[in-house]
């Protein structure tokens, strides 16, 4: 085997190893005390996607202003409530701890759990036309009251 062939094979093997390897990153999700329920669900789905891809997820409970001085137990409970929403199995790599901006916890995927996006089926309501919307009895009563006003000379 000549040197060119050797270099080609080593380069090919290195590229195969690189293609099969997966670099894990630490992704970050930031939640506040006043974050709405729907926003929490969206962020938890995003965290579940990252966990299923094999990344670590750092969840930050961001505290600003007067929220910094709330009870520690209340704030930890808020963070744990967010963790319960995550729809995939995970393990806690770093427990909940105080950080400069609030509280932080780091999550890792447990096993080979995969997250599948659920396609929510939204039921469509039949569209009613304006004529169908009002009952005929309502329109009759309105006409009667209008006629009474005309006869009474009020209009």
The unreliable regions are: 119-131
Physical arrangement of strands within the biggest beta sheet: 1-2-4-3
**Shape, per Cα inertia axes:** elongated
Largest sheet: 4 strands, mixed
Strand residue content:
15-25%
Q: How helix-rich are the residues, as a percent range?
A: 40-55%
CATH class bucket of one domain? Alpha Beta
CATH fold call of one domain: Translation Initiation Factor IF3
Q: How many β-strand stretches?
A: 4
Return the CATH architecture of one domain.
2-Layer Sandwich
- Rounded average pLDDT: 82
Number of helices: 5
Q: Report the C-alpha radius of gyration, rounded.
A: 31 Å
CATH superfamily of one domain: Translation initiation factor 3 (IF-3), C-terminal domain
> What is the H-and-E element order?
HEHEHEEHH
Q: Given the helix and strand composition, which structural class is it?
A: alpha+beta
Q: How many angstroms does the end-to-end distance come to? A: 109 Å
Organism: Candidatus Kaiserbacteria bacterium RIFCSPHIGHO2_01_FULL_46_22
InterPro entries: T_IF-3_C_sf (IPR036788), Translation_initiation_fac_3_C (IPR019815)
Pfam families: IF3_C (PF00707)
Protein name: Translation initiation factor 3 C-terminal domain-containing protein
Tell me what the structure shows.
InterPro entries: T_IF-3_C_sf (IPR036788), Translation_initiation_fac_3_C (IPR019815). This is Translation initiation factor 3 C-terminal domain-containing protein. It comes from Candidatus Kaiserbacteria bacterium RIFCSPHIGHO2_01_FULL_46_22. Pfam families: IF3_C (PF00707). The protein has 155 residues and is of the alpha+beta class. It has a domain at 23-109: 2-Layer Sandwich (Translation Initiation Factor IF3). It has five helices and four strands; from the N terminus they run H-E-H-E-H-E-E-H-H. It has helices spanning 3-20, 37-52, 72-85, 130-133, 136-151; strands at 26-32, 56-62, 90-99, 102-109. A four-stranded mixed β-sheet has the order 1-2-4-3, covered by helices on one side. The N and C termini lie far apart (109 Å).
């Amino acid at each position: 085997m000549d040197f060119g062939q050797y270099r080609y094979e080593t380069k090919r093997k290195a590229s195969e190893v690189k293609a099969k390897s997966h670099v894990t990153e630490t992704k970050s999700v930031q939640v506040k005390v006043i974050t709405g329920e729907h926003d929490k669900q969206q962020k938890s789905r995003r965290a579940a996607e990252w966990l299923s891809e094999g990344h670590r997820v750092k969840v930050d409970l961001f505290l600003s202003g007067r929220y910094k001085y709330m009870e520690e137990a209340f704030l930890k409970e808020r963070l744990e409530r967010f963790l319960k929403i995550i729809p995939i199995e995970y393990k806690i790599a770093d427990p909940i701890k105080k950080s400069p901006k609030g509280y932080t916890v780091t999550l890792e995927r447990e096993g080979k759990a995969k997250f599948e996006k659920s396609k929510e089926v939204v039921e469509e309501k039949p569209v009613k036309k304006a004529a169908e919307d009002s009952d005929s009895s309502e329109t009759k009563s309105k006409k009667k009251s209008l006629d009474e006003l005309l006869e009474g000379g009020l209009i």
